[in-house]
Amino acid sequence: MDEDDIYGAEIYGEAVPQYERPAPSAAEADVPAYEPLYGVKQEAAASASDKEELEELRQQVADSAAREADLQAARAAEKHLLDEAATLRARDVTLQQALAERNIDNVELRRQLAAARQAADPHIAQARQLLLDPAVAAEFERLKGEADAAAREARGLREELQAAHFSQESKVGRLLMAKCRALQEENEELGREAAEGRVAGLERQLALARGAVADMRRAYLELEDAAQQLDAEAEELQLQVFMLKHQIRFLEEHEAASRSGGGGGGGGGDFRERPRPGPPPRFGKRMEPYPGFGGPNPSQEGFHNHHTPPGMGGGGGMTVGGGGGGGLGDGDRKRGVPPRDRSGYGGGGKRPR
């Protein structure tokens, strides 16, 4: 089938007549034969590049128009500034002229003032001489006092006259009534302010009292928690002291029993070595009796019968020699019991405390 025959002769029975293509040029030699629309693509690419160039030209025209508008605005602003500068120059000239005129007037006034001072100097000297005369000064003082007394007397008489002719229709009466109303309103305003101030003060005191109560409540709760913790710690310490006391008592009884049952003056018992006891039991733990010795004392019910040393109840003896006698036994020497008291206690003797 021909390459340019799109539908082919096999489908329609015969090939579509085609025109003869000219020989490809050197630039078209590299184009594949299976691209019949290559020229259309080249035209589309050329039109796209033309569109891009057109857009660039439009953008340049818009930029030039914007620059032209900015330039015109700058020129208008420059013209306006030049006009303002000319106006300010004219105003400056006017102000300078006014200043020069004021300076001239000032110089003239100073000259006139100096002339007036020169003309008034003799009168001032004469007045000073008159005031320095004691007789003239005394006369001036007397006249001044009489004038003040007359003014006070006239003011008092005027007030008495106004009080004698007081009425609500008169001018003075209206003034007095207006003044009384103003004073009454002022007193009412002061009373309201005082009441509001008292209420506000009481509210502030109440708020402070509430804050203090809240602080005291928090402090009380904290102290209560601390007291509970201290009570718990005290109970624990008391329990530890109680346990330590019973352990000490147990050790003392055990040591006394060891001394009382030790060898030295024993009677006729078979020579047996007792078993070595372990450490003292903890509080609340039941102590098991040693094999071959008496059980715990049933009279001590409150402490689980664990404080009775082994061998002190009814049962087999725990002495090496069998009878009571002084000195330490062989087991005591092995355990390292200190020989504090070698007097010993008999079999029927009283237990040491």
From TrEMBL:
Domain of life of the source: Eukaryota
Compositional bias ranges of the Basic and acidic residues kind: 330-343
Keyword Repeat: no
GO biological process terms held by the UniProt record: mRNA modification; mRNA processing; regulation of alternative mRNA splicing, via spliceosome; RNA splicing
Compositionally biased residues, Gly residues: 260-269, 311-329, 344-353
One Gene Ontology cellular component: nucleus
TM region(s), chain numbering: none
Coiled coil is among the record's keywords: yes
UniProtKB keywords: Coiled coil, mRNA processing, mRNA splicing, Nucleus
Region (Disordered): 255-353
InterPro entries: WTAP
Location (main, coarse): nucleus
Subcellular location: Nucleus
Residues forming coiled coils: 40-74, 192-254
Family under the similarity heading: Belongs to the fl(2)d family.
Protein name per its UniProtKB record: Uncharacterized protein
Organism: Elliptochloris bilobata
